[in-house]
Design goal:
This protein has 147 residues and is mainly α. It has seven helices and no strands. It folds into two domains: 101 residues, Orthogonal Bundle (434 Repressor (Amino-terminal Domain)), CATH 1.10.260; 45 residues.
Amino acid sequence: MRHRLFLPCILWFCKISCYDVKERDEINLEVQYHMMGSRIRQRRKELSLKQSELAEMLDISNNHISSIENGRERPSLEILLRICDILKVTPDYLLLGNMHANEIPLDILESLRLCSQDDIDLVRKFIEILVERNSIIWNQNNFVKNL
């Protein structure tokens, strides 16, 4: 008799767990699209482009680019690649926030595992400074200055 009750309980729990995983993945995906939209907006503003100008370059409506930037709509692959071209960024940056697709060398990762949390926080701040510096240099080297 115990086995008859046990099996339905396991199936019920697995069913709920599957829904929880699916719901969590959907929420995570929505957050990623929202972050991608935020990166598009940030980069567009760095280049002093108006939303309407970007929409015109992409041959899409202002409402559509606004929805993409706010994470309400997902760009097609073609639109995503055109956005990357216009904003002079990699798809990796828009999707994941990485300016460079290079992998972190294994020796650096291994060394970080030996550091304290305070050391890791310090490294994080240092990396943010380097990223900002490189972003400024990259922009200066890759964009025509306003005349």
